[in-house]
Amino acid sequence: MDTCFHMRQMAKYEDFNFSVSRMTLSADCAPHQHDFNELEIILSGSAINSVNGFEFPVGAGDLFVIGREARHEIRQVDALELYNIAYDASALRSCNEDLRGLPGFHTLFALEELYAGRSGIRMKLNPDVFAKVKILLEELHAEYTNGEAGFRSMIMCDFTRLLLILSRSCSAGESSGSIGKIAHACAYIEREYLSDVNIGRLAASVFMSERHFRRLFGRIYGMSPFAYILSLRLAYACQLLRTTSQSITEIAMASGFSDDNYFTRCFRQKIGTTPGRYRASGENRP
């Protein structure tokens, strides 16, 4: 039976679902699973990385994103040095729109979280990016290890910078596969959801038929492209309701709805209350 690791075993601080460690392996790592997401960046040495039965040789500059509950083992280890970052998926939900507008973010992180049964996401960092990443990892590790006042905020800033660098690097790479195409489309949606997004044209822009695009998007995200757009618009509307004094009609228009009655119906259906009651209750949810 595989060993199962839990975030509470990995995290140094009980109230912080995040850990970063620099590891030197001289022996194989037995098959295991975990209830967190894992980012591995190989510094030196070599090994065979196995994720859900798919095996890949690894060396300096290789990056792996391994989803929770994936079956993972490392074999044929030869002086392997790596950084291991364990994080809860909630750490990604707070990423800002600027980051979520990068196709590489979806390829590396959002889609790995949603696309079950895969072999993990892997990427080779080019030398320039690898050099930047190593410096940032050293800073991140030092903050986590030392735990000085404000370290949580500093760690999340450094982690966001790391996600940005990796996402940019991935976005610049080849994206001809289905995952890359969906990632580009979803990044476009994240940037343009307040405008009139035409699903047919969006599918054509990533060289898919609209029918295939809708089917694949639904299989990965568990909802239609329109439902995804609607969720983003409603989340933005909730933000405006919490932080501005704009009228319900003004917020409906600002959130991409052409009719405030339709906005209220959608809001009630998805959020469970009306926009006015949401604002009056002081809710602090999306």
Strand content: 15-25%
- What is the structural class? alpha+beta
Low-confidence stretches: none
Shape: globular
End-to-end separation: 40 Å
Order of helices and strands: EHEEEEEEHHHEHHHHHHHHH
Q: Radius of gyration in whole Å, from Cα?
A: 21 Å
The portion of residues assigned to helices is 40-55%
Walk me through the structure.
The model has no long low-confidence stretch (mean pLDDT 86). With 286 residues, this protein is an alpha+beta fold. Strands 1, 2, 3, 4, 5, 6, 7 and 8 form an eight-stranded mixed beta sheet that branches. It has helices at 7-10, 90-93, 97-100, 103-114, 127-146, 151-171, 178-192, 199-205, 210-221, 225-243, 248-254, 260-271, 275-281; strands at residues 3-5, 18-25, 29-34, 37-51, 54-58, 62-66, 72-87, 121-124.
